[in-house]
Design goal:
single chain, Aspartate Aminotransferase, domain 2, 7-stranded mixed β-sheet, 4-stranded antiparallel β-sheet, binds 4'-deoxy-4'-aminopyridoxal-5'-phosphate, binds glutamine
Length: 384
C-alpha cells in the first residue's frame, strides 16, 4: 500500500459488518436499511433491464432522464435552478462523487477543512488527492444533547493554503443538522476567503423535529463555488445500487467529470432510469419515509437511554451517537469489539471518524434504519 493510503486499513464498516455476520449479532453498525426501497422503483429497474435501456455504456454525465429528474428535484424543493446538460453529473454513489470532486479540485499540499468526526471516506480521498486534511471538531454539548460546530474554530482553521471546505449536513455520525445561521456563516467565510465548497447532503430527506435541511448552494455567492453531492442510497433505500449525483456550475461539474471519467467512466445504466422515477415520486413518499424513520429514531433513542447510554438525539441522518461513560465505559473501540458477545449487537466506535482519537473515544454510533421488531430486540438485549 502506498504512502497516501498506508494509514487507512479496512474500513470500519466492512470490519463491523463482518463481525455481525460472524457472531450473528444484530447489525446496528453499517448504515443500510433492512427493508428495500419501493416495489414500483424495483419494477422500473427490471423494466429498464428488459427493455434494453442502459445495458450498454450510458452517456458519461448520466442518462438525460435522471439528470432532468435531479434538476427538477433541486428546483422543486430548494428553488435551485440547474441545467441538466451542463450542471449535473451522475456518479457511482456519493462515494465516487466525493472522490472525484477532491481529485479534481485539490492540488497537492492544499488544505481541506472537514468537520471531525468525519465520514471515513473523506480522510482517504483527501489523502488520495494528496491534500492535507484540517479537522474542525464538532463538540459534544451535553446540555443541548447535540454536537455543535464552533464557528470561531472554523474561521481560525482557514489559512492561505486552504482550498476547500468539505461540509456534511445532515451530519454522519453525529446527526447534527447545520442551522440556517451556521450555514450563512460558512457561506460568508467561503466567499470572504474565496474557498471552494464540496457539500455532502446525502441525508437531505432525513431531518426531524423542527430541523430543516438548507443546501449551502442556496446562500449568496455560493452557487458558483459549491459542488453539491447527494445519492439515492439513503433517500430511496437502495444503498446497493450506487446511484449518486453532483450539481454545480458548469466549470465545477466539468472538473469533477474529468476525474469521474477515469474512475468508472460511467455509472450503471438501468438503475439510473429507475432512480429518475424515484425522484419523481409524490411528496407523500418523502414525508412517509421521514415519519417512518422518525418513529424508529424515537424507539431506539428511548431504548438506548433506558439501557444507560447518554443519547445525542439526532436532528438528521439515521444514526444515533451515544456516550458510553454513564455505563462506566471509556473506550468505544473495546466496547464495540465486545458488544456482540455481551449483548448480541454491533455498533460503530466513533473514534475511527476522528484525527483526535481521544476526543471520539467515548462515543458509539447506532443505526436505526432497521425494522421495528429488530430495533425492539436490540433494545431488549442492550437493556439486559
Ligand atoms: N456520505 C455520507 C455522509 C454517508 O453517510 C455515506 C454513506 N452511505 C455516503 C456519503 C456514501 O453514499 P453512497 O452509498 O451513495 O456512496
Ligand atoms: N454510510 C454508511 C455508514 O455510515 C455506510 C457506507 C459504507 O459502508 N461505506 O454507515
Amino acid at each position: 500500500l502506498n504512502r497516501r493510503l498506508a494509514e487507512f486499513g479496512t474500513t470500519i464498516f466492512a470490519e463491523m459488518s463482518a463481525l455481525a455476520l460472524r457472531t450473528g449479532a444484530i447489525n446496528l453498525g453499517q448504515g443500510f436499511p433492512d427493508t428495500d426501497g419501493p416495489e414500483e422503483i424495483r419494477e422500473a429497474a427490471v423494466r429498464a433491464l428488459r427493455d434494453g435501456r442502459g445495458n450498454q455504456y450510458p452517456p458519461g454525465p448520466g442518462v438525460p432522464e435522471l439528470r432532468t429528474a435531479v434538476t427538477a428535484h433541486q428546483q422543486r424543493r430548494y428553488g435551485l435552478a440547474y441545467d441538466p446538460d451542463t450542471e449535473v453529473l451522475v456518479t457511482a454513489g456519493a462515494t465516487e462523487a466525493i472522490a472525484a470532486a477532491l481529485l479534481a479540485l485539490v492540488e497537492p499540499g492544499d488544505e481541506v477543512i472537514a468537520f471531525e468526526p468525519y465520514y471515513d471516506s473523506y480522510a482517504a480521498c483527501i489523502a488520495m488527492a494528496d491534500g492535507r486534511r484540517v479537522p474542525v471538531t464538532l463538540r459534544a454539548q451535553e446540555d443541548e444533547g447535540r454536537f455543535r460546530l464552533d464557528l470561531d474554530e472554523l474561521r481560525d482553521a482557514v489559512t492561505d493554503r486552504t482550498r476547500l471546505l468539505l461540509i456534511n449536513t445532515p451530519h454522519n455520525p453525529t446527526g447534527t443538522v447545520l442551522t440556517r445561521e451556521e450555514l450563512a456563516a460558512i457561506a460568508e467565510l467561503a466567499v470572504e476567503r474565496d474557498l471552494l465548497v464540496v457539500t455532502d447532503e446525502v441525508y437531505e430527506h432525513l431531518v426531524f423535529d423542527d430541523a430543516e435541511h438548507v443546501p449551502l448552494a442556496t446562500f449568496p455567492g455560493m452557487r458558483e463555488r459549491t459542488v453539491t453531492i447527494s445519492s439515492s442510497g439513503k433517500t430511496f433505500s437502495f444503498t446497493g445500487w450506487k446511484v449518486g449525483w453532483v450539481t454545480g456550475s458548469p466549470e465545477l461539474v466539468t472538473a469533477v467529470r474529468s476525474a469521474k471519467q477515469y474512475l468508472t467512466y460511467v455509472s450503471a445504466g438501468p438503475f439510473q432510469y429507475a432512480i429518475a422515477e424515484a425522484l419523481s415520486l409524490p411528496e407523500s413518499y418523502f414525508a412517509d419515509f421521514r415519519s417512518d424513520m422518525l418513529a424508529k429514531r424515537n424507539l431506539l433513542a428511548a431504548g438506548l437511554e433506558e439501557a444507560g447510554f447518554r443519547v445525542f438525539r439526532p436532528s438528521g441522518t439515521y444514526f444515533i451517537t451515544t456516550d458510553i461513560r454513564p455505563l462506566g465505559e471509556t473506550d468505544g473501540f473495546a466496547f464495540c469489539r465486545g458488544l456482540p458477545e455481551r449483548a448480541g449487537v454491533v455498533a460503530i466506535p466513533n473514534a475511527v471518524f476522528y484525527d483526535h482519537r481521544e476526543e471520539g473515544a467515548p462515543f458509539v454510533r447506532f443505526a436505526f434504519c432497521k425494522r421495528t421488531e429488530v430495533l425492539q430486540e436490540a433494545v431488549k438485549r442492550l437493556k439486559s
